[in-house]
Design brief:
Layout: E1 19-23, H1 30-42, E2 50-55, H2 61-69, E3 75-80, H3 83-89, H4 111-114, E4 120-124, E5 128-130, H5 135-138, E6 147-151, H6 154-157, H7 162-170, E7 180-188, H8 194-205, H9 213-221, E8 226-228, E9 235-237, H10 244-247, H11 252-261, E10 267-270, H12 285-292, H13 298-331, H14 335-352
Parallel strand pairs: 1-2, 1-4, 2-3, 6-8, 9-10
Antiparallel strand pairs: 4-7, 5-10, 6-7
Helix pairs in contact: 1-12, 8-9, 13-14
Length: 353
């Protein structure tokens, strides 16, 4: 691995107790990341050090300056472009955008390679709000595991969907009901052997038919090597927005924990197409807007919201046509293509609301 030395990221602080968090927003998502950053700052303590790292390839200088201006003295914010590294290291693997996810979704996969000088690293998606201090999650005992994550809602219904269940079993995930969400991860860097990880990662990236690319890859690679944290550390809003009969299909234990968690979440993760900046009347959107008002991106988010409403009205016929098209295509396709059309169907269904 010596040829990776030029890609190693150094800690911003000499203090080993600093919190290291990685995000990967693109330029269009930067205002929403700004809300996540502000919520993290508000729920931090002045005597804590935060080393914030953004993997990106298109964030504008304007947005970088706005983010930097938000930082208190105990926060460091740095930007890294991984494209050259990924191209050199994984030249034989195609990392393609999928549905409405961008290539940046894969960046989290490379944390163990380029952050070897850290003991632990927390990855977080940018569509979150921190609502409590992260200390209790960040300092968790790994118990010799390589990764800590939180169950994904899909894990609780995959047993009812034989195709999903069999797919994950085919890839070595013997218990798909333990399938975790990749939006909040805590890597045990010292415990991850890079030769083992590179081999497992390349093999997983070569597998076909994935429905949620980076998340499926991580579940295959770290199956049996991860432990699960409480739902509060990645409270994935949207479950209770489903049809009541769908939510009631979840195991009672899961429903009870989810119901309790949404009353006092630590990290709120807006995982569905019902993002709070598009649907301010939906579940937990008020928390997002509370933090958004405190950022320099607030007016921009409002503008995008109203501009989006105008575009929705203007493009409603097109959205309706595409929704019906992708709904039809999802009925006559299979595997990854079917999942792709379902994702697009959900996207345009949300745009029609």
């Amino acid at each position: 691995m010596s040829n990776n030395i030029e890609y190693l990221i150094e800690p911003a602080f000499a203090n080993p107790n600093a919190y290291t968090l990685v995000f990967a927003p693109d330029n269009n998502y930067t205002p929403y990341f700004g809300v996540a950053l502000k919520s993290l700052i508000i729920n931090s303590k002045p005597n804590e050090l935060y080393d914030i790292i953004l993997f990106e390839n298109d964030i504008s200088e304007r947005n970088k300056k706005l983010l930097a201006a938000m930082l208190p003295k105990n926060f460091s914010l740095r930007f890294f472009n991984l494209d050259a590294y990924i191209k050199a290291k994984f030249s034989g693997i195609s990392l393609n955008a999928f549905s409405y996810w961008s290539v940046s979704m894969y960046y989290r996969l490379f944390i163990p390679f380029i952050m070897q000088k850290f003991d632990r690293v927390m990855y977080v998606d940018s569509d979150v709000c921190f609502h409590q201090n992260i200390k209790d999650f960040y300092r968790k005992n790994f118990n010799d595991k390589k990764l800590i994550a939180v169950l994904d809602p899909l894990s609780q219904i995959v047993k009812q969907k034989n195709k999903h269940f069999q797919l994950y079993k085919d890839y070595g995930v013997e218990n798909p009901e333990l399938y975790f969400n990749s939006g909040v991860l805590l890597f045990n860097i010292r415990q991850i052997d890079l030769v083992w990880y590179e081999e497992k990662l390349k093999a997983a990236l070569s597998l076909p038919k994935f429905h949620y690319p980076d998340q499926d890859v991580l579940n295959v690679v770290f199956y049996g090597q991860n432990q699960l944290a409480e739902m509060k550390w990645n409270c994935q809003y949207g479950n209770s927005l489903m049809k009541p009969e769908e939510f009631m299909a979840y195991p009672q234990e899961y429903r009870l924990e989810y119901t309790q968690t949404i009353k006092d979440p630590a990290i709120i993760h807006y995982t569905t197409a019902f993002k709070p900046w598009h649907f301010p009347d939906k579940e937990a959107a008020d928390i997002f807007w509370h933090y958004a008002r405190l950022t320099p991106f607030y007016e921009e988010i409002l503008f995008m919201r109203f501009n989006g409403l105008y575009e929705k009205l203007r493009n409603r016929p097109e959205y309706l046509f595409k929704y019906r098209l992708y709904k039809l295509l999802a009925c006559f396709t299979f595997g990854q293509l079917k999942a792709h059309y379902r994702s697009l169907r959900s996207k345009y269904k949300a745009l029609l609301k």
